[in-house]
Amino acid sequence: MQRLSSVILIAIALAAAPTALGQDSRGDLPDIGNPASTTITLDDEYKIGRMIVKGLRDTGQIVEDPEVAEYIQSVGSALASHAHEGGYRFHFFVVKDPGINAFALPGGFIGVNAGLLTATASESELAGVLAHEIAHVTQRHIARSVQNAGRTNMASAAAVLAAILIGATTGMPPDALMGTITAAQGLAIQQQIGFTRTNEAEADRVGMTFLANSGFDPTGMPSFFWTMQQRSGSAGAMIPELLRSHPVTTERIAETRDRAEQLGRRSVEDSTSYGLIRERLRIQNMPPETNFRELYADAANADLPSSDQRRYGRAMALLAETDAASAAEAVGLLKDLVERRPDVTLYHTGLGVAQLAHGDGEGSRKTLERALELFPRNVPVTVRYAQTLMYLGQAGLAHQVLLDLFNNVPPTPDQARYIALVASAAGDTGDAYYYMSEYHVMGGDLQMAIDQLHLALAVPDLNAVQRQRFEARIEELKEYLPKGRKAREVASPATPDDSGTGSG
After folding, report:
1. Is CATH 3.10.50.40 what the domain over 272-490 is classified as, yes or no?
2. What fold is seen in the domain 4-192?
């Protein structure tokens, strides 16, 4: 994911210069007008951020692992709850990139590279990065950057995003696409990378307040800055991408340390999930030729002096090897962890997945049913349980449990797409189209969402409740489509209720 910060500002610039590519006929993109005389609204920011996230998701750049997604959203939400900015609904996600970087998109979308999360030494350091990025959003630094951009930069940015959009829609090979983008960039692109020194200082100050108010150690922010500076100063070391977009100086580190001391240093114990997610992502980002057994040799059994975190890491590493013997060993490790710490959801889901990998579908089912009793409507547990039910050929029950979950917890786009597949396997074609419609609503493609609902209405044997629901949703979406009203108001899917009517 090279130059992601450039792409972010390019996308914003294009949205601010509709004459470059023409007004979108579906009304999905904001009509911001002349950036020199018009302010970008919060709704415009949301549409831009959503568009970029959709592009990342469509190209497979986002980690869709339910355990990882649940964790990063929980940490981010704890921080964002102290932002007191009612105009934003923050969404946090992890990017499949081993580089050390994080970025704020317009509209409350915060991305963190997997490499950054594994590079942190504490949960407060991770929270410090997230808090800093949240502050960039609440202080509207990205919108301000666009407002300050000149017409020449806008034209160059529009040309670059045009190349990106063409590549995405025509399936242009990545190398050819990068060549097209490079040719379009010119000199203006360098002027759009990163934030000003004033922006960075403000994000540090505001973000550290979020950090302290959320119960994390405020020294986590300067601590991670110092670590990054040390890495960049090592002989032969590559400069982390984070430092390219967020330059760190000795003065900046000193200022954040002083601020942290004023807020009060505190001793904060990392959550169990933090260490386990780090191990999980470390395994996922290692090259396939890695000798995982050797890497986690110290965690081969409970008699060796290793931590539960390392044993969990070894279990995940064994599952990455995809053979029966490795899966069997992973089951043993995870059973021991579950018995000793039944309060950790990651051990339960890990054991259920390991049992399934070993071909023990019934064992996986029992494990996850027990976990659901302990953690009702927990998203990773329920999703893993549904996957096991699908393995056992029980698509109807999988559909029911997912419906119960997502009637109470809004799904991510990936989860909406998954329940559509489950509904289809369960023979409920109407609901399958409905869920795919909601998936497209989340991505901002309202016309595609309406098309999916028309397909749902064409399914034979719909009951009256389904038909009324689908028709009402079409009318709702049509109202937003031509008028360009706030599409984010319909971005939370209204899943069919569990009323025994055929909609679940």
Report:
1. no
2. Zincin-like (3.30.2010)
* Both tokens assigned to 139: 């202080």
What residues contact 272, with CB distance under 8 A and at least 6 apart? 341, 344, 346
Going from the C-alpha of 173 to that of each of 104, 169, 170, 178, 180, the distances in angstroms are 27, 11, 9, 9, 11
Over the stretch 322-369, which tens digit does the pLDDT of each residue have?
788 889 999 999 999 999 999 999 999 999 999 999 999 999 999 999
pLDDT digits (tens, 9 = 90+) for 412-467: 999 999 999 999 999 999 999 999 999 999 988 899 999 999 999 999 989 999 99
Q: And the tokens for 20?
A: 């470059």
Residue 142: which of 193, 209, 95 has the closest Cα?
193
Domain ranges in the chain? 4-192, 272-490
Segments in the chain below pLDDT 70: 1-40, 85-87, 143-195, 231-249, 300-306, 482-504
* Alpha carbon distance 426, 420 (integer Å): 10
Which 3 state secondary structure label does DSSP give 397?
A: helix
Rounded CA gap, 256 and 204, in Å?
Answer: 7
